[in-house]
Design brief:
about 140 residues; eight-stranded antiparallel β-barrel; about 50% strand
Length: about 140
């Protein structure tokens, strides 16, 4: 019984330490360069979807990404915004300037180093009526 309590305290302490290390303020003037969703791609179908974002004010980042499904498809320009709160963020994205393909989500940006991040998020796609877990990574300047 005592061993279980010690293990629980150790796990709680480790989780709090991880949250403290990973939570970093998103401030005005920060630049984010990264990938789009890398979790929904088969290992034989890798594609590049560069994403760039800018902190327009504390806790608010706006950005865009460019993607192309294959060599016959047109380039696709998506816009997105993230609002950060207590280490988590709310996410909204559109396909181009149209709100027909609206996506809403929530996630957390984990800072691996001061300038390297991983950002898993859950995204609901209103057009496809699906909910997906996405994963991106990148650099923060």
């Amino acid at each position: 019984m005592q061993r279980g309590k010690k293990m629980r305290n150790l796990i709680l302490t480790a989780a709090l330490a991880l949250i403290t290390i990973c939570a970093s303020a998103q401030t005005k003037g920060d630049w984010y360069v990264g990938t789009g969703d890398i979790s929904n791609v088969a290992w034989t179908e890798w594609s590049v979807s560069p994403t760039v974002g800018y902190g327009v004010m504390d806790n608010l980042m706006i950005g865009c990404s460019v993607s192309q499904a294959d060599s016959t498809a047109d380039l696709d320009l998506d816009f997105h915004a993230r609002y950060f709160w207590k280490g988590y963020f709310a996410y909204v994205a559109t396909d181009g300037l149209s709100t027909d393909n609206l996506k809403l989500g929530a996630g957390k940006m984990f800072m691996i180093r001061d300038w390297v991040f991983v950002d898993p998020k859950v995204v609901y796609d209103y057009t496809a009526k699906t909910t997906n877990l996405t994963l991106g990574f990148g650099l923060k300047f």
